[in-house]
Amino acid sequence: MTQRPAAVDFTVSDLLREKRDSLKLELIAGEKSVGRRITVMELNRPGLALSGFLEHFRPERIQIIGFGEHSYCMKAPGARLGSALEAMFKSKELPCLIMTHNLKAPAALTASCRRFGVPLLRSSLDTATLVAELSDVLEEKLAPRTTLHGVLVDIYGLGVLIQGEPGIGKSECALELLKRGHILVADDAVEIQHRRGAMLRGSCPEPLKHYLEVRGLGIIDVKLLFGIGAILDHTRIELSIHLAPWSAHTHYDRTGLDSNKTRILDVEVPQIRIPVSPGRNLAVIIEVAALNQRLRNQGYFAAETFNQRLIERMRAT
Fold this sequence. Notes:
This protein is an alpha/beta fold. The chain contains 10 helices and 14 strands. The two termini are about 45 Å apart.
């Protein structure tokens, strides 16, 4: 199951509006060009580009001007620096430049930004702090994301995505898991982001947060009924449970030796198919599946250990 990432429209204007205070930003030049789009999460230090070497210059990234780049701009010959800046600023992909340490903008840099319509920003933060915090902001805004139908529950610290056809009992399972002390993240719509390190972070769209819909009962407020400890803003998705109607003609794994996975945003997630039939306590089964997955994450595979012991016993006889 592969999903197409949702398109994100994030501009320099949005960055200033939302993060001006937290990132200590001010606009120095290029006021008419703040509509430029920011399309990638990575940042760039354009040291070599300022000297005229642009073979590996990445114009689609936000350019960070720290002490090193600033010192070069202040001392470089004007014609040489102007030529390098002209070559850099020709790309319409370049979103903006940000100077750190509240540095004074070099005249050549300001003039080039105004000439080519490139926003020039300044921050009072030091370079390392700005890079770290801005990277977090861009990852939050630009990480590939999708929305899936299902329920997301945090079970013993493990994010479990429960899916299946409508009416199969996903929300009822979540309700039973809540009664057993586990935590609801999202019901019905699960928003998923592909974060750095092949991590999938699941959360709930704002209008649906801490609400659960159960057929025959209606919509309930989990926060009010079970307390603030029963809800969570987001969790890392590490297991997918697919609920399917019981069928005598379908093969189900009975040993645990099968290793099934599903792909979400190009990340593989372990998946377990659980047949639904009258009398089965699905919440307990899902709870045990989460515990077993935690053991697997630590390198212990019960089914493989059991199988190896059987093989050794047969060899001994």
